[in-house]
Amino acid sequence: MDILKQSYAHGSSPLPSNAAVTQYHIYLFGSNISKSLSPLIHSILFRANSASWEFHLSQTTDGNIFWKQLRDNTCIGTTITMPNKVSFGLLLDDLTDEARVIGAVNTSFVRLDDRGQRRYIGTNTDCIGIRDSILYRMPQAAAMAKGRPSMVIGGGGAARSAIFALWKWFGSTKIYVANRLKAEVDALITFFQSTAPDMTLQHLATVEEAATCEAPYIVIGTIPNDTPKEPGEIICRQIFDTILRRKNKGIVVDMCYLPLPVTYLYTNGQQNGWAVIPGTEVLVRVCIAQHILWLEKDVNKQGVEDAISAIWKVVNQGQSGPKASKI
């Protein structure tokens, strides 16, 4: 609930006393979103809190459509996914610290200024979903991770959120980045030098480095569950295989959950004695954080369990589309 308290720094609540029975609407903006699991999860969470709100898909990259929908007084918030996480964030009135440091927005919510006018605030709940999925499983993880290295696999937007979470809430002294393209890692390092200059990132580029570096406690995967084919992909897999086989064990989180949540990284981590967390749990925690900002209350435990059970069932039945997760 810390994110709710922090959200009021951007203004007061826009919700009336009868908000739960008011017909408010939430929209997901992105491309290739027809298979999104967000409508299923949010419908379960709204129902668990007796809120008669509706969740809609808006498959577009047009900022004008986004802005027009945002200003509808029945719109109480949005989810923003690829490729809109940067461009749509620029259309909002303000950003939270998370969104500003990460450089991407996946959620907007509404607060009122001193004159009662609506303000549209952008944030990033991907990083909160990572944090909360780890702490829910292992409350001691923050203390165990502090002062130790961590590792992120990948170099895209999800990697940014993972890096932020490890730096902000788990006290990682150093964050290794393994990725198929060195240029993407260089871009990540350059970016975070401008937004979080006290963060230490290191490209883990070879199997030899993976075998001799100080072992990471938390490993977060942010890449599709594809069989590696290109040289960079093959080396990247060899690097995290080497890390997982090392003596010191910790926590593996794989944000990819499609077409199945039991990925290569998940299975390999489990077989090597690591505690593993699937991407389905991260996705639910991302949606919970959004729900808290919109409905301005926590989600009851049964609603969370129902949401996790529902999406696990859907993805294991093979009903969910593309290989890479979009959250």
Automatic annotation (TrEMBL):
GO term, biological process aspect, one: shikimate metabolic process
Record-linked Gene3D superfamilies: Leucine Dehydrogenase, chain A, domain 1, NAD(P)-binding Rossmann-like Domain
GO MF annotation list: shikimate 3-dehydrogenase (NADP+) activity
InterPro entries, sorted: Aminoacid_DH-like_N_sf, NAD(P)-bd_dom_sf, Shikimate_DH-bd_N, Shikimate_DH_fam
Domain Shikimate dehydrogenase substrate binding N-terminal: 28-107
Top-rank taxon: Eukaryota
SUPFAM superfamilies tied to this protein: Aminoacid dehydrogenase-like, N-terminal domain, NAD(P)-binding Rossmann-fold domains
Protein name, per record: Pentafunctional AroM protein
UniProt lineage: Eukaryota, Fungi, Dikarya, Ascomycota, Pezizomycotina
